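Readers outside the structure-tokenisation community will struggle with the description of the input data as it stands. What matters is that the chain and its backbone geometry are given together, residue for residue. For illustration, here is how one protein appears when written out as sequence plus structure tokens:

…
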Amino acid sequence: MSAAASAGDGARAAGDADQPPVVGMVGAGQLARMTAQAAIGLGVEFRVLAGSAGDSAAQVCARTKIGDYLSARDVLAFGAECDVVTFDHEHVPGEHLAALERVTAVRPGGPALALTQDKGVMRDRLSALGLLADLGARCPRYRRVTSLDDIVAFSDGAGGAGWPVVLKATSGGYDGRGVWVCDDADAAAEVTSHGIGLIAEEHIAFDAELAVLVARSPAGQGAAYPVAATLQQDGVCREVIAPAPGLGSSLAMRAQRLGLALAAELGVTGLLAVELFLLRDELIVNELAMRPHNSGHWTLDAARTSQFEQHLRAVLDLPLGSPEPTATAAVMVNVLGGDAGVHGRLAHVLAADPGVKVHLYGKEVRPGRKVGHVTAAGRDVEQARERAWRAANYLSVGRECPDEVGAGAQAGAGAQAGSGATGSCAGGGSSR
């Protein structure tokens, strides 16, 4: 490990030493697995801290350390052997991050990550930023709540948000877990019975869901990918379309400026994904993620620089790559587990459409679990959607057009920034 890294004051830059820099990623899920692929091309030594040898990235990463991210000893021992440490999730305790920053470079740092670990802290910080209003953006109305009375007051009090109310666990939620849309007080009472920390938010009847993915290096260089439209079903991202169809250039540029401004203001190094609701011409900040993100998986096959390579460049303080797309339209659809494995279906998908790109994560197949994704790119967004959904459906359930294609998913896709559902196979046929 370099002297600079051991003092905690920066990662070793490429070319500064005879040996390649060592990047460690805490967490070994599919994000780490795909980051490992990008590290090969850059000649970076990449290591992961995995919970088990069966984790997605641990299966393909030669320098895997088995340990617990909740253990300070495991995290510090891992970090001591790296020039820079980054993450594929946000769950490392803040006190461990503070100690790790005294050992090596941590990117993003603990103060930035704290905003993604506690939704109440995130909402407080974002709501205090004047730059949101300057860019025609805001957060949803929200309130920290500890009781049913608090929730009822938020909904029914003077100037209240009304029902339904969205309740979110302040920590630990992902992929729809930890989020409840409550139509009335009885539903809210069921959530409060869990005894967890909560915030209440107004329910946004949005026109579309968007995601803007940006990168920022310690030197302050920034790059923004095209704004993508996302389709969520049962709290799980099913589809991403990039660039977002029908989104005007002025609004798209405003969303990109928002992402870059937030990255700078919050001190993010690496990738920042900003999930947004679009309501008419207003951008409403829903969630932040400071790592590679599901909304950026399309960049593996349809951008000059994938989000995974960009993240490595950023945390190593290397010049950032071009975020320019290489196709007019790219559509990514997540592959959810069905009632059987996916590998026996792979040959059919590859033969049926040689242009579709398939990425499988090496994860045990369970119904509704994300086990991979497919990307189709081309000149026509509707054709790309049709191709991507056919491939994803077949991998999930063994049929290109499942009997149970979800009308709700089609309606949701049709609302996305001018994108209409297309063909008999568009929509979330393999949802939970």
Observations:
- The longest strand covers residues 270-279.
- The chain has three domains: 3-106, 141-202, 208-414.
- The longest helix spans residues 249-266.
- Confidence is low (pLDDT under 50) at residues 1-11, 404-423, 428-432.
